[in-house]
Write a structure and sequence with these properties.
The structure holds 2 protein chains of 2 kinds. Chain A has helices at 3-11, 14-38, 42-58, 60-73, 84-97, 109-113, 116-122, 132-139, 156-167, 175-192, 218-224, 242-257, 292-296, 312-315, 318-323, 334-345, 347-350, 362-366, 373-385, 402-415, 418-438, 445-451, 461-467; strands spanning 77-81, 102-105, 126-129, 195-198, 202-204, 209-214, 228-234, 238-239, 264-268, 282-288. By secondary structure, chain A is an alpha/beta fold. In chain A, the strands form 2 sheets. Chain A has a 6-stranded parallel β-sheet, sandwiched between helices. In chain A, strands 8-5-6-9 form a 4-stranded mixed β-sheet. By secondary structure, chain B is an alpha/beta fold. Chain B has helices at residues 2-16, 37-47, 60-70, 98-105, 157-167; strands at residues 51-54, 75-78, 90-93, 110-114, 117-119, 124-128, 143-148, 153-154, 175-179, 184-185, 193-194, 201-206. Classes of the chains: A alpha/beta, B alpha/beta. Strand 9 of chain A pairs antiparallel with strand 9 of chain B, so a sheet runs across the interface. The structure holds iron/sulfur cluster.
């Protein structure tokens, strides 16, 4: 399905719109209420959070090496992977060396990014998701619709049907029952577990430790009852100290869920020590570049690496509300996805998502680490048409869009000439209302009106000013 | 080697695009509702859906017993340090490696353990794994009974982590956990349900 069809389908999916809208407003409301009632100077803390990440990025080589040194001293095995192939291969080899044909996964967007499940399946290893939301979408072969609440587009009745069909249980409609079904199904799996996989929220250089956040306990299961724990960690996740992580944690959780804290903060500093009675015997951290160092080299876009994956930019995006995460066709949806998907995977592949944005600016206002998402989206749009192109991945594969350039030139010409501008306004004022019935046949308007309302055009500004009392109109 | 390639790429990126920034400073901006640190902890811990019970050191055993009776618990998983506690329920002592106890562990109803710290501003408790108190005690059972000394309540995550570091010298525990209460999910329709893969009912006895 091409992107236009996909978006069209999602805009018209009433059930999706309803499920999504309800939850997004709840997430927005909870966040706002919590921050205004319980937190002091949130804005100042955002500024500090931004500094922590910016500082860590500015010293990334040093911090990565310090992390490796301290983690290794703690007994953790650190691997480096420049791209998804290498990361997948490292994980496959760990499984193979230990004769493992099934792994259980806590939630990890990085594993989605590298297409780990698919890769392992091709090699004969089953990767089973354990986060409830991920379980649901894995059963139906869908990617996450949201980075924090991956199956939020499905309501209880739909989940009941999915479980009935794929887990062969009776059809339940109560959420508690559905939860029980998932618990029982996974309990069996955890019992047998040999190798567990997780993401990383913060990697702490000074301590050689990783910090994982979750509510369900599946992440703890995957990283505790297994013999081997593998954590995939984007290189931008490294911070210097515990206090840096505490600060980011304080920003992350209210932004993500409107709570102050997750049920579990799981800080892992080493594999099972000789005196310990449980915990994995091996802990591996796979550091992943996969295009991140490329983003770091770009002045306008390096700040996107500050992202702590809270998802609040999508919760506040009016476009995301209407189309959901799948319409972006990429691992990372919403405003942050519009920025990093083209940069990580190619602007030729994901550049179209930039046009989904209405530049309302909500996302940049709520982002806990103050990433100027709207500026970046606008700049990336500009990259697509400007003459001296930056070395954005895939930029040279973009088809030349001369029509857009021509149109903008005409617009600039009219907008900078008062006479021409007035004439245009007069024309719009007189004829725009007649355009509506013809919109489906006029190029440009046609694309616009398939997914959006016909624009309300009011060009009577001059007339209104003229008629205002006390205005002398020349 | 990919390590060299990545580090080189990162260094080159920073040469091309030098970033500068002082690091940020953490300040605890959560506004307490109670004046007293212990009271604030208690309030928060209940908001986080743990059942809070106050007791004294001498009465601790009775407090545990009455929970076990109330919940009709038959089997209890205990760390070595609590193995002498006098209860009528069947005691399973977690004194062997998980590999030998696996089947039993997945069956037990209730785990009891001592928390290292409480965190006042968030209303959560913290437990670190060690040879006496393995990690699964706080994860694998349906019920948890957590013992917490009032004097071990700290202000926030930052001060608690400092306390761990101070107590352990250079070596940090293998696993430090901060736990808010029962495990939960809101993955379906954003409705909160308790008891997913971790405990469903968590008692904290503060003494
Ligand atoms: S860009 Fe900002 S708001 Fe969006 S997920 Fe990342 S940290 Fe959260």
């Amino acid at each position: 399905m091409n992107p236009r069809q996909l978006i069209h389908e999602k805009v018209n999916d009433k059930q999706l719109n309803k499920n999504l809208e309800y939850v997004m407003y709840q997430l927005q409301g909870n966040r706002k209420k919590l921050i205004s009632e319980r937190y002091g100077d949130w804005e100042a803390l955002r500024e500090e959070g931004k500094k922590v990440k910016q500082n860590a990025l500015s010293r990334l080589p040093e911090l990565l090496e310090r992390f490796e040194k301290n983690a290794t001293a703690n007994g953790i095995k650190v691997h480096w992977s420049k791209d998804n192939d290498e990361a997948n291969e490292i994980i496959l080899n760990i499984a193979k060396e230990n004769n493992i044909n099934k792994i259980l996964k806590g939630k990890s967007m990085a594993s989605e990014e590298i297409g780990l499940n698919h890769y392992l399946e091709k090699k004969g290893i089953k990767a089973i998701e354990t986060d409830l939301g991920e379980v649901i979408i894995q059963l139906i072969g869908e990617p996450p619709v949201h980075i924090v609440v991956p199956a939020i587009h499905k309501n209880r009745f739909e989940v009941g049907e999915i479980f009935e069909k794929h887990l062969h249980v009776e059809r339940y409609t109560e959420i508690e029952d559905l939860n029980r079904v998932a618990r029982t199904y996974l309990r069996e799996e955890f019992h047998q577990l040999k190798m567990g996989l997780s993401g990383v929220n913060f990697a702490i250089a000074d301590e050689g430790a990783i910090w994982l956040l979750e509510n369900e306990g599946n992440g703890r299961m995957s990283t505790t009852v297994s013999d081997i724990h593998v954590a995939i960690c984007g290189i931008e996740k490294v911070v210097e100290s515990f206090d840096n992580a505490v600060l980011l944690n304080t920003l992350l959780i209210p932004s993500a869920t409107g709570q102050s804290v997750t049920t579990y903060n799981n800080i892992i500093t080493s594999p099972r020590k000789e005196s310990d009675l449980d915990g994995p015997k091996e802990v591996h951290v796979v550091l992943l570049d996969n295009g991140r160092s490329g983003i770091l080299s770009k002045k306008r876009y390096s700040a996107s690496l500050r992202c702590i994956r809270c998802g609040t930019c999508m919760n506040h995006c009016p476009v995301y509300h209407k189309i959901g995460g799948h319409a972006y066709g990429a691992t990372y949806p919403g405003p942050i996805g519009e920025v990093i998907s083209p940069l990580l995977f190619g602007i030729d592949k994901y550049g179209y998502t930039l046009n989904l944005c209405s530049l309302c600016g909500n996302c940049a206002e709520v982002c806990p680490v103050k990433i100027p998402l709207t500026d970046m989206i606008r700049d990336l749009r500009n990259e697509k048409v400007k003459d001296n192109k930056d070395d954005i991945l895939g930029i040279n594969n973009l088809p030349k869009n001369n029509a857009e350039r021509k149109n903008m030139e005409i617009f600039a010409e009219v907008a900078t000439n008062p006479k021409k501008w007035q004439r245009l306004m007069w024309f719009i004022d007189k004829f725009a209302p007649f355009g509506k019935p013809f919109a489906p046949f006029i190029n440009g308007l046609k694309q616009w009106t398939t997914c959006r309302a016909y624009p309300k055009m009011d060009a009577s500004f001059h007339k209104k000013i003229k008629n205002m009392q006390g205005v002398k109109y020349e | 080697m990919s390590k060299e390639i990545i580090l080189n790429n990162v260094k080159n990126a920073l040469n091309k695009n030098p970033l500068q920034s002082n690091s940020g400073v953490y300040t605890d901006i959560l506004k307490p509702i109670e004046n007293d640190m212990v009271q604030e902890y208690k309030r928060g811990q209940e908001v986080n859906k743990a059942i809070l019970i106050e007791s004294t050191k001498d009465d601790l055993e009775n407090a545990i017993k009455s929970i076990l009776e109330k919940e009709n618990i038959k089997q209890v998983l205990l760390p070595k340090s609590l193995q002498d506690i006098s209860i009528t329920q069947e005691k399973i002592i977690y004194n062997k490696p998980v590999d030998e106890l696996r089947n039993t562990l997945f069956q037990v109803e209730c785990g009891i353990f001592e928390a290292n710290y409480g965190v006042s501003n968030l209303g959560i408790f913290s437990v670190a794994s060690n040879s006496d108190q393995p990690r699964l005690l706080s994860l694998i059972t349906k019920y948890n009974i957590v013992l917490l000394k009032k004097e071990n309540i700290k202000e926030n995550l930052s001060t608690t982590l400092q306390a761990y570091k101070k107590e352990n010298g250079d070596k940090l525990p293998t696993n430090i956990l901060f736990i808010a209460g029962p495990s939960r999910t809101a993955d379906i329709e954003f409705q909160v349900v308790l008891g997913v893969h971790g405990p469903q009912i968590v008692y904290v006895i503060l003494y």
